[in-house]
Amino acid sequence: MINNEEFLDEIGDNHFSSNAKNPLREDAFDITDEEKIEKIKKDVENILQTLGMDLTDDSIKGTPNRVAKMFVKEIFGGLNPAKQPKASTFDNNYKYGEMLVEKNITVYSTCEHHLLPIIGRAHVAYISSGRVIGLSKMNRIVEYYAKRPQVQERLTMQIVQELQKALGTEDVACVIDAKHLCVNSRGIKDIESSTVTSEFGGKFKDPQTKREFLDYIKLDTQF
């Protein structure tokens, strides 16, 4: 009989997600970023002290504050809806009707099971139904949803859903190929493996359109 702690460990070690949305509490933003930094700083101090580190050493005494600021301002900054990029779109006045592909968007995210990095590339495409979006906005949408504790499947879906909403079309696709340091540096310690996830909407579900997109990004994986 597996106990609850073993069950939760199994979920994390096998990278299962229990929620298609990031599991945020309703009071997540009742305190300011500065208050969060102070609370996290004390927690990091406690972790380091418990591990036996000497926090009077010049090299490490600033670590709790650095980590707290990094969590709130940088690697988990995408949790804050106030930081969501404005996905400005424009009329497709030049009547471009083919696929637009933005390849090799850098992904830096964090595995929500072990709080270790996920590093890879996202490939995003859409077919205009009358609106187009600035290229840099596609990068910013990827970055926004990546900067939070994540699972790769959810991240892939969130990128597609955000672009579908912004562009007013289902014809959006995303493929992410990334390394998970929770697999590469601990556990099985497989430094070569990477994880590929995909989400295809609208016309991208058609095998020919899907194949065209995968040919553009030079990905041979079968979906």
Automatic annotation (TrEMBL):
Alphabetized GO MF terms: GTP cyclohydrolase I activity
Binding, Zn(2+): C111, H114, C182
Pathway connected to this protein: Cofactor biosynthesis; 7,8-dihydroneopterin triphosphate biosynthesis; 7,8-dihydroneopterin triphosphate from GTP: step 1/1
Domain GTP cyclohydrolase I: 40-217
Keywords, alphabetical: GTP-binding, Hydrolase, Metal-binding, Nucleotide-binding, One-carbon metabolism, Zinc
InterPro entries assigned to the protein according to its UniProt record, in alphabetical order: GTP-CH-I_C/QueF (IPR043133), GTP-CH-I_N (IPR043134), GTP_CycHdrlase_I (IPR001474), GTP_CycHdrlase_I_CS (IPR018234), GTP_CycHdrlase_I_dom (IPR020602)
Cross-referenced Pfam families: GTP_cyclohydroI
Record EC number: 3.5.4.16
Taxonomy, superkingdom: Bacteria
Catalytic reactions of this protein: GTP + H2O = 7,8-dihydroneopterin 3'-triphosphate + formate + H(+)
NCBIfam families: folE (TIGR00063), PRK09347.1-1 (NF006824), PRK09347.1-2 (NF006825), PRK09347.1-3 (NF006826)
Quaternary state and interactors: Homopolymer.
Family of the protein in this entry: Belongs to the GTP cyclohydrolase I family.
HAMAP family: FolE (MF_00223)
Record-given protein name: GTP cyclohydrolase 1
Protein source organism: Flavobacterium humidisoli
